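can u do me a favor
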């Protein structure tokens, strides 16, 4: 049969055979398949026709792994508008949660949980530094919190991935001291050990490089250009549907590269206001985007690509610090007609319950909705990437005006691979054992990590 083929057809068959052998060799020795270029190794998205992630990544053959994303926004919310009631698509949401209207069937609204240790200082730093651990916070110049649950997962569930966890931020860390507590607590929610906050990556380009480049150094060479030759060869051996999925993935990588390249050119400085109006030194290379909305969306897209390629399964994204100095000229002010919400920093704005504060709250939830919808648009067999994810959004207090943390604002989106049902409200306000760490135990359980206790809790929330 082979002898009857033309030389061109024979060459094509031999090429495909060789490509499959190379593919199998990669899978056998590396357990997952990468597109490669000079200094670059790009993991592939889940595909139906080729087992690119290796057998050990799935809970069952053909199933994608579960991922965790933790998003944080500081200074709490408009407390009278943080509520949900009802079930499924009939669920009603408070105005803060309006951006999640189209995701209600995948939303778990959790009310009434708190950290006992966080109530002792009643200041931003003492309420944020232990948000993901529930640990006691040291003051008086000492820095001590506790291992956060995302990093416990990174050290166990995530250790097989190229990036055990991706820890991102959109506002630089603050090294100062406020009322006897280090502001490093306000700047970090992820802790690799009780005395080591996990380094926060605020530069989109470096976060992107960490996913794809073998060495994380700034550079002008496109990651996508480096692997195009390998991608073309790989494209020939997958199904038609997987070619479409591969093309969409590569285009999404290209889009992020373009946006990173142009970041910072619009000149909208949205954090602390400098006293110098014009530069007195030579302009440095582009770095942190000056448009805060673009910065946040880039970090969301990088998180999604990390999940899509199984380069990482755990990410935390700190949209801003507690006690934040961000301003929002991109949002039209209701209280000061004709201007943006840049007349007051985020921290001071949180001490009001006005319409501008509500708009800023909704802006943060829009980022969560953006990431959730992005994940929900990516198919992984019979489920979407959001169906295989737990996306937690939280803050360290309910209301900034009162530093109210006797119940913390918590929402969870996604299905954890079929292990969580959405469209529900869980209210623990009148129940005993309201430790937020019980929720963390439940989340870890969905990822098959089961410590006997965590923080101040030794039992999960059965309803989750």
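np, heres the sequence
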């Amino acid at each position: 049969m082979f002898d009857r083929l033309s030389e061109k057809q024979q060459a094509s068959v031999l090429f495909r055979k060789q490509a499959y052998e190379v593919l199998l060799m990669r899978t056998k020795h590396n357990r997952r398949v990468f597109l490669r270029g000079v200094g670059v190794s790009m993991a592939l998205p889940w595909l139906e026709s080729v087992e690119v992630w290796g057998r050990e990544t799935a809970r069952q053959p053909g199933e994608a792994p579960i991922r965790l994303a933790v998003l944080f926004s500081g200074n709490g919310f408009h407390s009278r508008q943080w509520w949900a009631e009802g079930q499924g698509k009939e669920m009603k949401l408070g105005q803060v949660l309006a951006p999640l209207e189209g995701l209600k069937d995948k939303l778990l609204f959790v009310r009434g949980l708190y950290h006992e240790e966080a109530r002792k200082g009643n200041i931003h730093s003492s309420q944020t530094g232990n948000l993901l651990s529930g640990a006691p916070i040291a003051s008086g110049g000492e820095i001590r919190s506790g291992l956060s649950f995302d990093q416990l997962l990174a050290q166990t569930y995530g250790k097989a991935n190229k990036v055990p966890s991706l820890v991102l931020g959109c506002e630089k860390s603050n090294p100062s001291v406020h009322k006897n507590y280090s502001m490093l607590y306000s700047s970090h929610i992820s802790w690799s050990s009780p005395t080591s906050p996990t380094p926060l990556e605020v530069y989109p380009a470096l976060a992107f490089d960490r996913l794809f480049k073998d060495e994380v150094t700034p550079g002008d060479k496109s990651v996508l250009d480096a692997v195009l030759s390998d991608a073309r060869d790989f494209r020939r051996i997958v199904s038609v549907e997987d070619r479409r999925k591969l093309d969409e993935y590569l285009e999404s990588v290209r889009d992020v590269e373009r946006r990173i390249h142009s970041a910072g050119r619009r000149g909208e400085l949205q954090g602390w206001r400098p006293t110098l109006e014009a530069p007195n030194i030579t302009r440095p290379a582009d770095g942190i985007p000056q448009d805060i909305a673009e910065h946040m969306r880039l970090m969301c897209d990088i998180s999604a690509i990390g999940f899509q390629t199984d380069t990482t399964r755990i990410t935390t994204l700190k949209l801003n610090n507690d006690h934040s100095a961000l301003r929002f000229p991109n949002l039209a002010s209701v209280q000061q007609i004709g201007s943006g919400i840049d007349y007051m920093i985020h921290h001071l704005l949180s001490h009001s319950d006005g319409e501008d504060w509500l708009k800023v709250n909704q802006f943060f939830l829009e980022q969560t909705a953006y990431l959730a919808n992005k994940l929900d648009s990516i198919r992984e067999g019979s489920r979407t990437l959001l169906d295989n994810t737990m996306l937690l959004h939280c803050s360290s207090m309910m209301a900034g005006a009162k530093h109210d943390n006797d119940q913390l604002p918590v929402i969870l989106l996604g299905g954890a691979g079929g292990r969580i049902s959405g469209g529900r409200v869980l209210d623990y306000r009148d129940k005993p054992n309201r430790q937020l760490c019980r929720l963390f135990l439940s989340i870890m359980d969905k990822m098959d990590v089961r410590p006997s206790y965590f923080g101040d809790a030794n039992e999960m929330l059965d309803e989750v």
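The chain has a mean pLDDT of 84. hope that helps!!
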